[in-house]
Design brief:
The complex is a heterodimer of chains A (507) and B (369). Chain A contains 18 helices and 12 strands. Chain A is of the alpha+beta class and 507 residues long. In chain A, the strands form 3 sheets. Chain A has a 5-stranded antiparallel sheet, sandwiched between helices. In chain A, strand 6 and strand 7 form a beta hairpin. The longest helix of chain A is centred in the last third of the chain and has 39 residues. Chain A is elongated and about 100 Å long. Chain B has a single domain, classed as Up-down Bundle (Amino acid/polyamine transporter I). Classes of the chains: A alpha+beta (507), B mainly alpha (369). Chains A and B meet through helix 18 of A and helix 6, helix 7 and helix 12 of B.
Chain lengths: 507, 369
């Protein structure tokens, strides 16, 4: 009963009266009228003109047609030069009496809209609207020009052999980067509005004659059914459309490399792009797509598989190094050859903590250095490295807080974790590592095996958009067999069968 | 049954079967065989295997001649509603008893060989928790995990066998026939039920992708199991000799303590996790099958929900015998002796009933068409 009461008290929210925006909404649903003056006033009040600094409303007189008109645009997201040279000047200087507006202005695309709401959304996304006296339709010119950076080298998924360019924050650049790789009319770029208030667009990129229709529908519906005010970028979208938001393992792949996105699209996957996101989401994703990197295929067969081998080794070292140390020292000391055992015992002699505490101290220190190193402003970055290495490593050993071998074990695990390039999988493995450390502290190798088995059962039961997480390993599907190792390129015959692509054969 | 499931492929089925039956070579089954067969113990699995082969063939012939029916439905169809219920109830009792005794043995192995200070209830609890978690995920997941770990487990077993067979003394094999030819045949056929689990696998017929996969999978797995059991038994014999192997309750674990790899004198903790994973998968599958049978007997559609309760019950029952190393050894032998006639009679009876009803002929005709 007390619990119920507490929950009630905790959950109750102080009343808050929202302001009604019914009037505004009603106004925006209407069409524009014939009177220019009234229309201009409407837009002025909606945009709080002239308080709103970058909204420009330019009144002018169209020569020849002899009509009054108003151009409305937002100067910070449009190319004002084009507006001046190709819209305003031709309109003023026009002398022909019967030319249509389309023929006077010289911009790339011209459209017409009559509903206020739609005109507003066009202006908000970088168009200019031309309202003409006596006409019930506004002319919309596409003159958008958003600020952003150019195409740069990829930062987080760097590689030695292969293309270096990365996505940037402008979605049309990103689409162009993908189109550059897939020169095919079947590549579809579909846009869906995902948020109510900010009207953020999500672009679905897929190859029409490969991607499974059900999958495409499923993804489209999931994006459309989001009922959120704002959805700024893909990182937020990912959390909204994934099936298990609380799961340790990621189910949607996140990449900043257009070549990777393109090759996934060519296998029948779906790529999601958004403005403000220097990356792409790829779905469905399996465990293997997080483990692979694009360089595995750019390198020759043997070299590529060698890096794969190193990566899987790194993964296991990250997961198990600390846990194995704890369980061997605490429970299975007989396993180590006597000489080594004596060495370990001698180094642990002065340390007052049990092995598990020692490891956990060091692990937390390592994670702290890592996190701090990421956030630290770049001028003092190197200092942190030195402080981290010196004080936490050397001094901790000298102060008998940890034994030297623990530093080696933790550093090895930490270092290996960097070989897992994907940031989500990296986090997943690091979190699992702590769980394994705990289970090893309680039950030694028994606990580790138990947790590992539970983990396996969990992994095989995860699905990403209907695709089992460990496929094509199990359950078995026709595919190129690209799991732990890859095959020769000429032996990779099939697209992944778990996607049910429309065309199975690749070559 | 109530739930719509995706079917498992031949690989997953094969892995489940080999892990379910094959893992027996690591508990006290070898000790039971060596007890009476002495140094001909390794022939036990072979002779049993031959009889079990005939029985499996009969079962396969009967069960697969029906479209999409598993063992439960075939038994009720052939024996009628009431008798069939009784037979299935006996089967469930055996499966639950065997599961309890087996898990108790595995807990005892963990307790006596590796974690001598850990309270039994804790290690038992962890074991059953993992198995219940796995079983509750469903058959498809059990199959996937089984197949994912299967190649590594087989590789490890291979390594162990190579190390054992190179360090052994082959003179221990003689006299080949041990206590005498007839004795060997008689004693080993009393312990036919080491293959009893195959019977339960016929519950899975509708869940395997096709009948052909089931047939092929069963035979491949059967051969692998028999070969593995036989070779491992030879391994025990050549390493320990029959006198000491009779004394050992858990020869596999003594064996991995005994062998050496280079500078590493004690490698059992290296092999231990692999054995654990195999056992987890084995009992997860077992638990699932037992719950499935229970679900049918008591008309529980969503039988997955009884699995955690089952697991708890098993821990409580399994903890009852004191000094488990001896008590459970006796219990297990009793179960083996009790289930042997069931395993021997059931397929033959089923086959005879099917023959009398004329279902087999009918199936042949439809197959030919």
């Amino acid at each position: 009963m007390i619990g119920k009461f507490l929950r009630k008290a905790y959950k109750s929210v102080p009343p808050y009266s929202e302001e009604s925006s019914k009037e505004d909404i009603k106004q925006k649903e209407q069409d524009i009228g014939k009177k220019l003056q009234k229309n201009t006033q409407t837009f002025q009040s909606i945009y709080s003109y002239p308080d709103n600094q970058d909204v420009k409303i330019r009144e002018l007189h169209i020569g020849g047609l002899n009509k009054k008109a108003t151009v409305i645009f937002i100067s910070t997201i449009t190319d004002t030069n084009i507006i001046e040279q190709h819209i305003i000047r031709p309109l003023i200087e026009n002398s022909a009496e019967s030319k249509s507006i389309k023929d006077i202005v010289s911009v790339q695309t011209v459209a017409t809209e009559s509903q206020i709401k739609k005109i507003l959304s066009k202006i908000n996304s970088g168009n200019a609207a031309l309202l003409i006296d006596g006409e019930e339709q506004a002319q919309i010119f596409n003159v958008s020009s958003f600020e952003g950076r150019g195409v740069e080298k990829s930062q987080n998924e760097s590689l030695v052999k292969g293309p270096k360019e990365a996505f940037n924050e402008m979605v049309f650049t990103n689409i162009s980067l993908i189109r550059k790789k897939i020169k095919n009319e079947n590549l579809v770029v579909e846009s869906t509005t995902a948020s109510v208030r900010s009207k953020n667009e999500v672009y679905m990129v897929y190859v029409k004659d490969l991607a499974n229709d059900k999958l495409v529908d499923n993804v489209r519906n999931r994006i459309k059914s989001l009922n959120t005010d704002v959805l700024q970028n893909l990182g937020l979208l990912e959390q909204r459309i994934e099936e298990r938001p609380r799961s340790v393992f990621p189910t949607i792949l996140y990449t900043e490399r257009p070549d990777r996105a393109a090759s996934f699209a060519e296998d029948g996957y779906i790529v999601l792009l958004m403005d403000n996101s220097p990356d792409a989401l790829i779905l469905p994703a399996t465990f293997w797509s997080f483990y692979h990197s694009s360089e595995d295929h750019y390198l020759r067969f043997l070299y590529g598989n060698f890096t794969r081998m190193l990566r899987i080794a790194a993964m296991f070292i990250t997961l198990f190094s600390s846990a194995i140390y704890i369980s061997i020292v605490t429970f299975h000391a007989e396993m180590i050859p006597p000489d080594l055992l004596l060495a370990i015992a001698a180094s642990r002699e002065k340390v007052p903590f049990p092995a598990a505490i020692e490891i956990i101290i060091m692990e937390i220190a390592f994670e702290l250095i890592r996190e701090a190193g990421l956030r630290v402003p770049s001028p003092i970055g190197p200092t942190i490295g030195i402080v981290g290495a010196l004080i936490l490593g050397q001094a901790a050993v000298q102060a008998n807080i940890v034994s030297p071998i623990v530093v080696i074990v933790v550093a090895l695990g930490g270092l290996s974790s960097f070989a897992i390039a994907d940031i989500s999988m990296n986090f997943a493995i690091r979190l699992c590592r702590f769980l394994l450390v705990l289970s090893a502290a309680f039950f030694g190798i028994y606990g580790m095996a138990a947790l590992f088995t539970i983990g396996l059962f969990y992994l095989v039961s995860i699905k990403s958009f209907g695709v089992p997480y460990l496929s094509p390993l199990s359950p078995k599907y026709i595919s190129s067999g690209d799991t732990v190792f890859r095959r020769l390129l000429r032996n990779e015959f099939y697209r992944p069968g778990y996607l049910k692509p429309k065309d199975m054969k690749k070559q | 049954m109530g739930q719509s499931q995706e079917k498992i492929g031949i690989k997953e089925y094969l892995a489940i079967m080999i892990l379910m039956v094959g893992t027996k070579l690591t508990d006290d089954t070898p000790a039971i065989l060596f007890d009476n067969l002495r140094n001909a113990g390794w022939m036990g699995p072979l002779i049993n295997g031959f009889i079990a082969l005939i029985l499996t063939y009969l079962l396969m012939r009967v069960v697969l001649s029906y479209e999409n029916k598993n063992l439960i439905e075939v038994i009720t169809h052939l024996f009628g509603k009431y008798l069939g219920y009784v037979v299935l109830f006996i089967l469930w009792i055996i499966s639950f008893g065997a599961l309890t005794v087996d898990t108790a043995i595995y807990t005892d192995i963990i307790g006596t060989m590796y974690f001598t200070n850990t309270p039994t209830i804790v290690s038992y609890g962890v074991l059953m928790m993992v198995c219940a978690y796995g079983a509750k995920r469903g058959l498809e997941q059990i199959g996937s995990v089984a197949w994912a770990v299967f190649p590594y487990l087989q590789f490890i077993l291979f390594v162990i066998l190579v190390l054992t067979l190179t360090q052994g003394e082959y003179a221990f094999l003689t006299p080949i026939l041990g206590p005498g030819g007839w004795e060997v045949v008689k004693e080993s056929s009393f312990r036919l039920s080491i293959y009893f689990d195959i019977l339960y696998l016929f519950l899975l017929v509708p869940f395997v992708k096709s009948k052909k996969d089931f047939k092929k999978g069963t035979w491949i797995a059967f051969i692998v199991i028999v070969v593995q059991l036989t070779i491992t038994m030879i391994g025990y014999l050549v390493l320990f000799d029959y006198v000491s192997v009779e004394q050992l309750n858990y020869p596999f674990h003594e064996l991995i303590r005994f062998i050496q790899i280079g500078i590493f004198g004690r490698v059992e903790s290296f092999f231990f996790p692999f054995w654990l994973i195999a056992s987890f998968v084995r009992f997860a599958a077992y638990l699932y099958l037992s719950a499935m049978l229970f679900g049918w007997l008591f008309k529980i559609e969503e039988f997955e929900y009884v699995i955690p309760t089952f697991a708890t019950l098993i821990v409580l029952v399994g903890l009852i015998p004191e000094s488990p190393t001896f008590a459970i050894f006796q219990l297990r032998e009793a179960i083996l002796k009790f289930s042997t006639p069931v395993f021997f009679m059931l397929p033959i009876l089923l086959w005879m009933m099917a023959k009398l009803k004329g279902d087999l002929k009918h199936a042949d005709n439809t197959n030919k068409k």
